[in-house]
Write a structure and sequence with these properties.
By secondary structure, the protein is of the alpha/beta class. Helix content is 53%, strand content 15%.
Length: 453
């Protein structure tokens, strides 16, 4: 869902009596599109003081609330817009998108169906329905609506890729490859087809073919950070010491909208809870006395788990999209967009605790981030983090990049880097961090302490 693709409802777009309000709304939308979210939200709310039931303002404010992680508020606001203008399809479409991401699938379906009642020739809505039906394992219905979308618009890239995802889910990998290849040929500069085809190949262990997909993507869109990173991951050529900033920022900005739904509902993501469980054994009673850092905070899943210990909780992340979602948790005293290691190193002796859940898997060697963390901790401070596990017997250098683009680390490498940073190991515990492609992702949850002065 994008603010750029949203139009005002015809009920108010040309109301001569509201020209001043409409000018203010256009300016608020421009601020919103420019990602000046605080200013946009303040102006939306000022307009609502003068026109409390203005449907476009309610709608756009709902989109903004969702972007900032306030899902229930977003649903309520867009619901008010729909009550004011029941027959405007964009309101229903965006409500359906938000409800689907919130896991409220039946409600989402009703809004998508309403869009089709109002605008029957909408391949985008049919594609949304196909995605929803696939998530509900209603595979026949998914295929029917996606094929209907392609009857309307044979080159509809979203539906072509969605059919590829559906075929892959059903074990029809050759059909999936055909759809992804078709999407790439129709729109070679569009990222999704390359990404999906490469992922299908590497999950099948066909790394040479995956690498060739990413190489072709690099040739088609020179300098694309995802193509470059994934080519290195699948080919083993020019593997970076850590994931580049532009790769991390782009990946998680795109992922921010669906991050929590994907990880928690589909991948049984447990890293924040596992970090909190281990940390609780080494922290004092939760009396809001500590200065804490959530390093690589993402959408803020660690925030609610650690807030009761924190007098002051700081979140740092490279993705502005993730930080907007984290702001909705209302747990953080500061949210900062920055590269992690550089920012931590620039804040010595500041924190009583640092937690980093599933962030150091974007680093090769852990030496630099652990050294920076040690310097940023106060004497006696606690560091807790999770990483994906590599086998000491086959990963001699202590870390490696995997075909999915993340790094894994050996126990001996973790121990060596903790020691070099002057941190005392408290625990290195085996854990299942998530599932991926139906298989458990094995990892370690690590706790270490900076010696007291």
């Amino acid at each position: 869902m994008s603010i750029e693709n949203c139009n005002p409802s015809p009920a108010v777009a040309h109301a001569d009596t509201e020209i001043t309000i409409d000018e203010a709304l256009r300016y608020a939308v421009a601020l919103h599109q420019d990602r000046r979210y605080d200013a946009a939200e303040a102006l939306y709310r000022r307009i609502l003081e003068s026109a409390p039931e203005h449907p476009d303002v309610l709608h756009f404010l709902g989109i903004l609330a969702n972007q900032r992680g306030r899902t229930e508020e977003a649903i309520e606001l867009i619901g008010q817009a729909i009550s004011a203008v029941p027959d405007f399809p964009d309101f229903h479409n965006n409500q359906g998108n938000i409800l689907a991401l919130a896991g409220r699938m039946e409600e989402a379906e009703s809004h998508y169906r309403r869009v089709l009642d109002l605008r029957p020739d909408s391949p985008d809505t049919l594609s949304n329905l196909g995605t929803l039906y696939r998530a509900l394992d209603r595979f026949d219905e998914a295929e029917t609506v996606l094929l209907r979308a392609l009857e309307m618009a044979p080159n509809h890239i979203k539906s072509i890729n969605n059919l590829g995802l559906l075929c892959n889910r059903l074990g029809r990998s050759d059909d999936a490859i055909g759809f992804y290849t078709r999407a790439i040929s129709l729109m070679p500069q569009h990222a999704d087809g390359h990404h999906l085809l490469g992922a299908l190949y590497f999950t099948q262990g066909r790394l040479k073919e995956a690498a060739e997909v990413y190489r072709h993507w690099m040739d088609t869109v020179p300098g694309h950070p995802t193509a470059k990173h994934m080519y290195a991951a699948c080919s083993g050529d020019n593997v970076p010491a850590r994931a580049a900033d532009d790769y991390v920022e782009r990946t998680f900005d795109l992922f921010a909208e669906s991050f929590e739904q994907q990880l928690q509902q589909k991948l049984s993501y447990q890293a924040p809870e596992l970090c909190a469980e281990v940390a609780a054994r080494f922290l004092p009673r939760p009396e809001a006395t500590l200065t804490m850092l959530d390093a690589g905070c993402g959408t803020g899943l660690c925030g609610p788990l650690f807030k009761s210990w924190a007098k002051h909780l700081v979140g740092v992340d490279l993705s502005s999209g993730m930080l907007q979602k984290a702001s909705g948790k209302q747990c953080y005293d500061e949210l900062i967009k920055a590269e992690l290691t550089t920012w931590i190193a620039a804040n010595p002796d500041r924190f009583d605790m640092i937690v980093s859940a599933d962030t150091l898997c974007y680093f090769g060697s852990l030496a630099e981030p652990l050294l920076a963390s040690a310097a940023s901790l106060r004497p006696g401070g606690l560091l807790v983090f999770s990483v994906e596990a590599a086998d000491d017997s086959i990963v001699l250098e202590g870390h490696r990049i995997n075909p999915h683009g993340r790094y894994s680390h050996t126990r001996s490498h973790i121990e060596a880097c903790l020691s070099a940073a002057g941190l005392a190991r408290l625990a290195i515990e085996d854990a299942v961090l998530r599932t991926e492609n139906g298989k458990p992702v094995e990892g370690f949850v690590v706790a270490a302490r900076k010696p007291a002065a």
